[in-house]
Here is the input.
Amino acid sequence: MKQRLLFKITLLFNLLVTLIFLNGCSKGSVSKNTITPPVTITTPSFDPNALRGVWITTTASTALNSKENIKQTVANCKIAGINNLFVVVYNNARTTYPSQVMQNLLGVSILETFLGRDPLKEIIDEGHAAGLKVHAWFEYGFASSYGQNGGAIIKAKPNWAAKDINGALVSKNNFEWLNAFDPEVQMFLMNLMKEVTTNYDIDGIQGDDRLPALPSTGGYDDYTISLYKAAYGGANPPTTSTDGNWVKWRAGLLNSYMKKINKELKAIKPKLIVSMAPSIYPFSLNEYLQDWPTWVDSGWVDLILPQVYRYDINAYSATLSQQKAYLKNNTSICYPGVLLKSGTYLPDDLFLTQMLQQNRNQGFKGECFFFYEGLKDKLSFFQNQYAFIK
Here is the structure.
C-alpha cells in the first residue's frame, strides 16, 4: 500500500516538473510563436498615364528669371510628382523667347528682363532632361494689355481694338482686348503659335480663358458688324450683348478659329498636344464666347483643363460635377484646373486633399495647378501626400 502511494506521489511530481519545464519553454519562445498583424505598405496611387500639371508664369514669379531658377523649378516639379509644365510664352505684349513676329510688330523681340537669353529653350531642355513634357502657354491670348488702355499693340495697331456697343475699347477685369474676329489679329496669334511650334521642341501649345476668347461685350466693331449683316440680310447685331443668338453666332466664329488652330499647328507637328484651359461652362460661353464643349466633341482639342477655381469643397464638388456633365464621354481628356495660389491665398492641406479626392471620385485621374509659386509654397504636401491621395 505504501509502495503504491509512493508511486503515485512520484508520478505526480514528475508530471508537475514536466509541466513547469514546458511552460518555461513556451515563455522562452514567445517572440517566435506570437502572430503579429501584417504591415500595411502605402504605395503611390498615381496613374502613370495621367496628366499632373502646373502653370508657370512671369507674373508674381521668378521661376524663369535665371537658368538656376529654371533648374530649381523643374527639380521642384519633379519631386512634387508633376509631369507636365505649362510655361508662359506670351503675355502683356511680350514673349519669353526671341520672337521675330514680335520684333516685326513692335520692334521688341523678347521681354526686356530676358534679353540675351531664351528661357523657353532653357526650360524645354531642363524639363525634357527630367522626363517632363513642356507646353507653350499663350497666357494673354487675344488680350492686348492689363490696365494700359490697350498697351503697345493697340498703340501700334489701333484698328485691331475690340469695340463694345459704345465704340469703346473692350475691357473686362482690367484686361483690354484685341478684336478676336479680325483676320489680321487672328493671323498675328496664329503666327506666334506657328513660330513656337516650328522653332522649339515643344510638346504642346495651350490657350486659356483668353484664347480663343472675347468678352461678350465685344463684337461691335465695323468688321464684325459687316459679317453679321452679311449673314442676316443686312440686319444690325442685337444691342444687348447677352442676346442668346448673338452670343451663339460670335461663339461660332471662335469655334472656327479653334478648328483652324488645331489643323494648322498639327500640319507642322502632327503629334503636338493642343490643349485649352477655359473658364467653366456655361460661364465661359456667356462671358467669353467660349463654347468649349463643342471643341471637345469636335476633336479640336487633345486636352481640356477647365478652371474649377473654388474656395470651399461644396462649391468645388458641385462645379466639378457640372463640368463633367458637359464632357459626355470625354472625361479621359479632361484635367480640372485647381487653384493653388492667388495673391496671398493658399488652400490648406485638408481642402487641397478634398479637392483631389473629388477629382478621383468623379473619374478625373489628374489635374493642373495654378500656379507654380503655390506648389513651391506647399512642396512638403506634394512630396509627402499628393501621390497617395485616392
Q: What stands out?
A: The chain has 15 helices and 13 strands. The longest helix spans residues 2-28. The first strand starts at residue 52 and ends at 56.
